[in-house]
Every structure is written in structure tokens, then in C-alpha cells.
Amino acid sequence: MSAHSHSHASADPAAPQKTAMPKSGIWPVIRSLLPYLWDFRWRVALALTFLITAKFANIGVPLVMKQIVDSLDKDKAMLAVPVMLLVAYGLLRLSTTLFAELRDIVFVKVTQRAMRKVALNVFRHLHALSLRFHLDRQTGGVTRDIERGTRGISTLLSYALFSVIPIVLEISLVTILLATKFDWTFVAITLAAIVLYIVATIGITEWRTHHRRQMNDMDSKANTKAVDSLLNYETVKYFGNEEFEAGRYDKNLQRYEAAATKSETSLGILNAAQSFVIALAVTLLMWRASVGIVDRQLTIGDLVMVNVLMIQLYIPLNFLGVMYREITQALIDTEKMFRLLAENQEVADKPGAVPLTTTGAAVRFDNVNFGYDAKRQILFETTFDVPAGKTVAVVGSSGAGKSTLSRLLFRFYDVTDGRITIDGQDIRDVTQASVRAALGIVPQDTVLFNDTIRYNIGYGRPGASDADIEDAARRAHVLDFILRMPDGWNTMVGERGLKLSGGEKQRVAIARTLLKNPAIMIFDEATSALDSATEKAIQAELREIARDRTTLVIAHRLSTIIDADQILVLDAGRIIERGTFRELLDANGKFAEMWRLQQQDAEKAALQAA
């Protein structure tokens, strides 16, 4: 499924590209990264040109060294010859480093932009996934997966382009040079050593990979536990469970420690195996060159050249070990991130979906069936209308399916059967962004961003003027409270708004929704956290807000919905009664029973207060 954001996915050029889950292995991952590199194809070409130039300069160094040594060996050598050769040697050495640095300077922007784009796509895709995914996920682990995955992209691009290509090029050039200058035994020893080296490196690294994957899992689990525990700081304190939490965290840290120890130990074995192969190959080549000098077939310059060639070849080959390890680790790290991108979006805009057009914003639930999973149905053949500009309230016991109505209207989930329309348009046929733009909600459980009060109210309409934000705060009866705070509008609300009381949070949420100014309002037990006096003041304000708007009220306290144009009584996912407040009381059914119970509770509370 394509990883696009809610809004106008088909037309948005900035929308993420379609990303399929890569098969394991480097090339499928590199292929999935190619679209991100295409924007900078000229930079990539220039970087590769610098890289190839550096490699040719590198191969030139031993050739010049042979000439220098052999020219010094002659009795009648002119001083000018070694001076020119020394200058050439110096220039080649400089070129090797200079072109490698130029390559890095040119390519750094490509790597950083690819990391940024992929991270942004994952972030957008996570927001595009359904509520079901977010209820199942654990934030700490997901953020760590994204962090490691973007780092892995940098590693993959750098190593794949700037290590695989130059090593192949260098091996080819060295082999050609040995084949033209020396006999077949030099080529045979070199190629046999390279094959043995690569086989040993890959074999041991594959064995190490298991420990690395285990290490990552333990790291994510430990991080998830830590984040979860700190988010629930108050609960931990209520029950005095600090040591219990530390114990849970330490269990994962112990497993991480064990996996990391095995990973590092196996790294030592790998390095030792690589060093053995290199030492053996260099010794054999030196022996062959020495025999050639004794037989007067080779010069001392040839011995020096073979030695320098081997050192230059085995430096990148030694790096091949590091490179293979890093690429394998980066693949493991990016694997999880790409799995997030491959996560089925579940709720997606139809191809060619058009924005919703609202005239009066009449809402209709038409024979809606829905369940969060197949085994447990929540709504059964639910049909009702919220006429344009009218207020409809839904009441019922906890778990009756009241809040599910708002989640379906916002299209966090799609209905199993039936349809929901706004002004006659099925919300599945229009863009999600336009549906959500038409809706405003004051939820029962208000969650705020860990930022200022101004930011949290302004979130209702990013870019709104200060005057508009203040007006929304005044209408939500929160302005006086803000002005009383020492930092005023810049007061930080804390993680999830925990520095504010329930009532303060609720009023900030009401102000935020007022600023959005939507065509359809949803109040999901919006005043449940308020005291009676504040509730009365805000209820009057909410009635004023709802007057010209289509409003759906999900209510717990029945006294707050006396003025509703229609009240629906929901019981176990079915509408069992509907009518005005007076009609439902006269019917003497479930609603009347709920009203009597709440009146008795209110009388008891009043007597206790007296």
C-alpha cells in the first residue's frame, strides 16, 4: 500500500513514493532507495567520477615507486629522474586523498537528503495508518526503529556506492597489473587470497548477524519499557513500584548485555581470521618476488611494487570486512523501518478521491454495522440523521458504542457494512483530509502537546493570528486562567497536558476546536471533567457554538442535553429509543430510568455537600 499522507494523495508531489517491503539483501534495499537518489543523479555521477579518479591515482603510486627504486639502483642515474618521479609520486598520493575528500563533499547532501526523505515518509505513513495500528504499537520501540533505520540508510548508501564499486575496481586493476607485469602465480595467489578472505568474512559475519538482531530487539524492548514507565510516572509512584519497574527494565538490559557480548566476541574472531589470510598472502607474494630477484627475472623495484600493491589492495579488503558487517547491520536496522512503510494503511483514500463539499453539513448513519474485530461487533444496523444546523445527542451506558460513532465519522476506521454520508457524500468516496477538516471534536480524554498553551490552542488552525487564538480562549472561558499564570500564554502544559487540571485541559481543548471553526461539531462527554459552575457556563457557550452548526453530542450527564433536537439511546450497539428530552421522559423507558438514577445521585451529592 502506498505510504501517503491523508491529503490529496494522488495530487501531492511531496507525498511519499510507494515503498514495497524489500526482500532481504542489499540490492532490493538499494533499489527501494534509488527514487530518493534520482533527484541528485548529477551529484552521484560526479562523486563516482572522483572515486574512480582516486582509484587510478592509487594504482599509479606503486608503479612510480618501482621506477624510483629502479632508477636509484642504476650507477649513472641522473638526479633529475628521481626528482621528477618523486614529484609524480607526491602528486599521485595527494590525488588519492584529494579526490576521495571531494567525493565525500559532493555526496554528503545526497545521503542527508535521502535520510530526511525516508524518515519523513515513515513519519507520514505512521500518521496515515489506522487507529488500530496505533493502539497496538509501543512508541519507544517505533521511534528507536526509525532512528536506527535512518542511520542505516546513510551506511548503506556510503558503503554500497563508495566501497563495493572501488573494491571491485581496485581488485580488477591490480589483477590486470599483476597479469601483465608478472607470471600467473602472482595472480593465482592474489585471487585465491581474495576469495578465501571474502568467504571467511561473509561466513563469520552471517553467524554474527543473529546476535546483532537479538541485540537490536533487546535494545528496542528496553527502550519501550523505559518510555512506557516514564509516561506512567504517577501510576508507578501511586503503587510504589519503582523497584519493580527497574527490575523489568534491567531484565531487558541483561539480555542486551549478553547479546552484545556475543556480538563483540565474534567480531574479534572475524578480525583474527582476516589478519591470518592477509599475512599468508603477503608472505607468499614476497617469497615469489624474492625468488624472481635471485633468478634476476625481477628487480628490487618489482618487489617494492608488489609489496605496495598488496598493502593498497588489502587496506580496502580489510575494510571489506568492516563494510560487510556494516552493510549487514544496516540492513537489519533498515528492515524494521521498511516494514513500517509496508504496514497496510487499512483506511486509505480511493484513487481519484475528491474533496468533500459541504453545504449544510447534514450527517447520516445509514444501516451501519461495525466491529473492531470479527469476533466482537460494536454497532448493529445503526441508522440516524443529524440534520444540518441541528443538535443530536447520543446517550447510553459505558461500552454501548457511543465513542465509536465519532471514530467512524472521523474515518479512523471504515464501517463493516452500511455507509456514513455528509451532505449525501459517502465519506469513503472523498479525501480523508477534507472530511476531517469539516469536523471538530472536544474529546472526553483531552491530550495536549508538551508545549505552550498558545501552541495547543493554535493547533486548531496552524497559522491563526494571536487575536483569533485569544478570541477562542475567551469563548471557551479559559482566557482569565491563562492571564493569571506567571508565564501567561507561554505556560508549558507538560507531557500530555499533565500540568493542567482536567477542567483546564478540557477548556483548552474547547478553545482549540472553536479556533478550527468546523462545519460539524462533536462533543464527546466534553464537560465531564468540569465542576458544576464551570460546566453551566461552558454549556451555555457550547449551546451558542452549536446553534448554527450540525452537532453530535455524546453525553454522560443527561442534564447537558435537555435542549438537543433529538436524543438517541444506544444500548449494546443498537438504538433502542429516540425522541426529544420530553418525549423520552414521557415514554418511561431506558432514558427515563437513567434520568431518575442521575437525579437521585445529584440529590445525594447535594445533601452531602449541605
- The Cα radius of gyration reads 35 Å
Average pLDDT for all residues: 78
Shape: elongated
The strand count comes to 10
H/E element sequence = HHHHHHHHHEEEHEEHEHHHHEHEEEHH
Strand content: 5-15%
Strand order of the largest sheet: 6-7-8-3-9-10
- Approximate helicity band: 55-70%
Number of helices: 18
Low-confidence stretches: 1-23
Largest sheet features: 6 strands, mixed
Tell me the structural class.
Answer: alpha/beta
How is the topology of this model organized?
Blueprint: H1 26-38, H2 41-73, H3 80-128, H4 131-136, H5 139-181, H6 184-231, H7 233-238, H8 242-294, H9 300-342, E1 363-373, E2 376-386, E3 391-395, H10 402-409, E4 417-422, E5 425-426, H11 432-438, E6 439-442, H12 453-458, H13 466-475, H14 479-484, H15 502-516, E7 520-524, H16 532-546, E8 550-554, E9 566-571, E10 574-579, H17 581-587, H18 590-609
Parallel strand pairs: 3-8, 3-9, 6-7, 7-8
Antiparallel strand pairs: 1-2, 1-4, 4-5, 9-10
Helix pairs in contact: 2-3, 2-5, 2-9, 3-5, 3-9, 5-6, 5-9, 6-8, 6-9, 8-9, 13-15
